Amino acid sequence: MKNRGIISDELIEFTGFYQEKAYPAPLRRITYSYIDTKGAAQIITVITNNMKHAASTIAALYKGRWEIETFFRWIKQNLRIKSFVGTSENAVMTQVWIAMILYLLLTFIKYQTRFRATITELLRIFREVLLETRSIIEYLRTNWEELIENRARPIQLSLL
User: Fold this and answer.
1) What gap in Å lies between CA 49 and CA 66, rounded to an integer?
2) Helical H runs in 82-133?
3) Which residues share a beta bridge with 43?
4) Residue 45 has pLDDT above 90, yes or no
5) H or E element: which one contains 46?
6) Torsions phi, psi for 95 (to 5 deg)
7) What DSSP designation does 4 have?
8) Quick count: other Cβ atoms within 10 Å of Cβ 3?
9) pLDDT tens readout for residues 7-17
């Protein structure tokens, strides 16, 4: 059986007086390695009280959880969900769903247009040209620097 990147799987216990009093049962320390999206090797150590599942299953669960955490961090940073408009469960869920739909639409547009820049830059372009009359496809064909340069030029009005 393959170890799926598992470096170690150890049983540990707290030895400090207060720590042992707070959690007297043994814990499991799993160290595993994986290749991240940038191609770099990452080594992660997790501590769990789960003694039933295989170490590779626990490592996969934590890795999946971390991907979800980074996804929501991206949403909070780029889609501006730092505070919620409403406080009810429905209001919060609606705002999160709208942000996720926006993310999926941006990803789809990036894929369909073969846009080479990041989704963050695509979102910046959409924010910049939201009320423009030019086609968004024209903006996607130009690079960001050209867009800023064109926007910086003053508009010459004619009195004809």
Assistant:
1) 18
2) 89-113, 119-128
3) 33
4) yes
5) strand 41-48
6) -65, -40
7) T
8) 13
9) 999 999 988 89
Helix (H, G, I), strand (E, B) or coil at 29: strand
**Geometric angle at alpha carbon 63, from 96 and 32, rounded to 5°:** 165
Average pLDDT value for residue range 21-26: 90
Helix, strand or coil, per DSSP, at residue 158: coil
- ∠ CA 30-38-119, rounded to 5°: 120
pLDDT in tens, 112-159: 888 888 888 888 888 877 777 777 777 676 666 666 666 666 656 556
Among 72, 42, 71, 73, which Cα is nearest to 59's? Answer: 42
d(CA 20, CA 26): 10
Give domain limits for the chain: 6-78, 89-152
The token duo for 75 is: 């949403």
The SS3 assignment for 121 reads helix
Q: How far apart are the first and last CA of the chain?
A: 80
Residue the block writes with tokens 């999946």: 64
Span 72-91, pLDDT tens digits: 787 777 777 767 778 888 98
Residue 79 tokens, joined = 């889609």
